[in-house]
C-alpha cells in the first residue's frame, strides 16, 4: 500500500469522480483507476460501486475513507514541517579565521538576505579541524584551502589563495628580490598560531634547509598581526585576501607566489551526506 494509492482513492471518494480526482492530483485517469484497483486487491474489498453514475463509495469504502482522511492529513503536515525545517536550517559552516573575516563575511550577508529565517552557525578553527568536522558530519560545509584527494571529501574551488610577505614600510626586504624563504627567516616573525596551514608550509620548507625561524608573536587574527607589523615588532606571512585596500598604503606587501604555492580555496563537503536547501 502506497501513499499515492491512498491519495487517488481519497480524491475519487471526495469528488465521486475518477476524472475530477485525476484533475486534482494532476495525473492521468488511468493512473487513478490503477491506484484504486491495486488498493482494492491489497485490502480484498470493493471500494466503489461503479454501476451507478457518479461512482459512490461502498459501505467498506466509506469506512476506509474515514480512516484514510486523517492519515493523509497527518502525512501532509509531516511533509510541510519537514520542508519548513529544511528551509530554516540550521546551517553549520566551519572555516579558518582569515577566510571568515575577509571573504566569508560578504557571502554571509547575501545568504542572510536570501534565507532570513535560517539559523546560521559559523565555527572558526584551523584547516585540519575544519576537515575533521566535515568528515564527522558535525558541520554542513567547510571553507578552506584545497584538500588532498586522499581525504575522500568533495572540494569545489571558488577563489585563489595567495600568500604574501607583510612588512613595515621601508623594511630592507622590500628593496631586494626574494629568491628564498631563508631571507624571511632571518627576521623576527609574527605568525598565526601553530597548526595553521600557511605557517606549517613555511616552517616545513625552512626546516628542510636546517633552519628555524624566530617567532616573536603567535596571534589568532591577521588583523592583529597587521597592527603589530605596522608597529615594527616583526614581519609576517599571510594570505593576500586578509589585506584591505588601506593596508597597501601602510604596510609593505610582496607576493610570495614564487616561493609558496598559490592554492585554491573553496567549499569542502562530505559526499553522500544529506543537506538542507540553504546549505546547497
- CA-based gyration radius: 31 Å
Mean pLDDT: 85
Beta content: 15-25%
Please describe the biggest sheet, giving its number of strands, its sense, and whether it closes into a barrel: 5 strands, mixed
In total, the number of strands is 12
**What is the number of helical segments per DSSP (H or I, 4+ residues)?**
10
The low-pLDDT segments are 80-86
The strands making up the biggest β-sheet line up spatially as 4-3-5-12-6
Characterize the overall form.
rod-shaped
Helix content: 40-55%
SSE arrangement, N to C? HHHEEHEHEHEEEHEHEHEHEE
What structural class is derived from the secondary structure elements? alpha/beta
* Distance linking N and C termini: 33 Å
Molecular structure report:
The chain is an alpha/beta fold and 280 residues long. The chain has 10 helices and 12 strands. Strand 3, helix 5 and strand 4 form a beta-alpha-beta unit. It is rod-shaped. The protein starts with a helix and ends in an 11-residue tail after the last strand. About 2% of the residues have low confidence.
Based on the model shown, name its key terms:
alpha/beta, three-stranded antiparallel sheet, 12 strands, rod-shaped
Concise summary:
This protein has helices spanning 3-15, 18-25, 29-43, 59-88, 97-114, 127-135, 181-185, 197-208, 222-230, 247-250, and strands spanning 48-49, 56-57, 91-95, 120-124, 141-145, 154-161, 163-168, 189-192, 215-219, 236-239, 251-255, 263-269. With 280 residues, the protein is of the alpha/beta class.
Topology:
Blueprint: H1 3-15, H2 18-25, H3 29-43, E1 48-49, E2 56-57, H4 59-88, E3 91-95, H5 97-114, E4 120-124, H6 127-135, E5 141-145, E6 154-161, E7 163-168, H7 181-185, E8 189-192, H8 197-208, E9 215-219, H9 222-230, E10 236-239, H10 247-250, E11 251-255, E12 263-269
Parallel strand pairs: 3-4, 3-5, 8-9
Antiparallel strand pairs: 1-2, 5-12, 6-12, 7-10, 7-11
Amino acid at each position: 500500500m502506497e501513499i499515492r494509492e491512498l491519495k487517488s482513492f481519497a480524491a475519487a471518494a471526495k469528488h465521486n469522480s475518477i476524472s475530477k480526482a485525476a484533475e486534482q492530483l494532476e495525473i492521468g485517469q488511468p493512473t487513478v483507476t490503477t491506484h484504486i484497483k491495486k488498493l482494492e486487491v491489497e485490502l480484498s474489498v470493493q471500494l466503489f460501486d461503479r454501476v451507478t453514475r457518479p461512482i459512490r463509495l461502498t459501505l467498506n469504502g466509506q469506512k476506509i475513507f474515514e480512516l484514510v482522511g486523517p492519515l493523509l492529513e497527518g502525512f501532509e503536515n509531516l511533509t510541510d514541517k519537514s520542508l519548513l525545517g529544511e528551509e530554516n536550517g540550521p546551517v553549520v559552516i566551519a572555516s579558518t579565521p582569515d577566510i571568515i573575516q575577509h571573504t566569508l563575511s560578504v557571502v554571509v550577508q547575501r545568504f542572510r538576505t536570501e534565507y532570513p529565517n535560517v539559523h546560521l552557525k559559523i565555527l572558526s578553527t584551523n584547516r585540519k579541524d575544519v576537515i575533521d568536522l566535515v568528515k564527522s558530519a558535525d558541520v554542513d560545509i567547510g571553507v578552506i584551502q584545497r584538500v588532498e584527494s586522499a581525504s575522500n571529501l568533495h572540494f569545489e574551488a571558488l577563489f585563489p589563495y595567495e600568500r604574501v610577505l607583510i612588512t613595515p614600510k621601508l623594511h630592507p626586504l622590500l628593496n631586494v628580490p626574494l629568491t628564498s624563504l631563508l631571507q624571511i627567516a632571518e627576521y623576527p616573525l609574527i605568525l598565526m598560531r601553530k597548526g595553521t596551514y600557511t605557517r606549517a608550509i613555511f616552517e616545513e620548507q625552512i626546516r628542510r634547509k636546517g633552519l628555524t625561524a624566530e617567532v616573536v608573536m603567535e596571534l589568532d587574527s591577521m588583523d592583529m598581526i597587521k597592527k603589530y607589523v605596522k608597529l615594527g615588532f616583526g614581519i609576517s606571512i599571510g594570505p593576500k585576501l586578509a589585506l584591505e585596500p588601506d593596508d597597501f598604503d601602510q604596510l609593505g606587501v610582496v607576493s610570495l607566489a614564487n616561493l609558496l604555492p598559490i592554492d585554491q580555496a573553496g567549499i569542502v563537503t562530505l559526499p553522500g551526506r544529506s543537506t538542507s536547501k540553504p546549505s546547497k
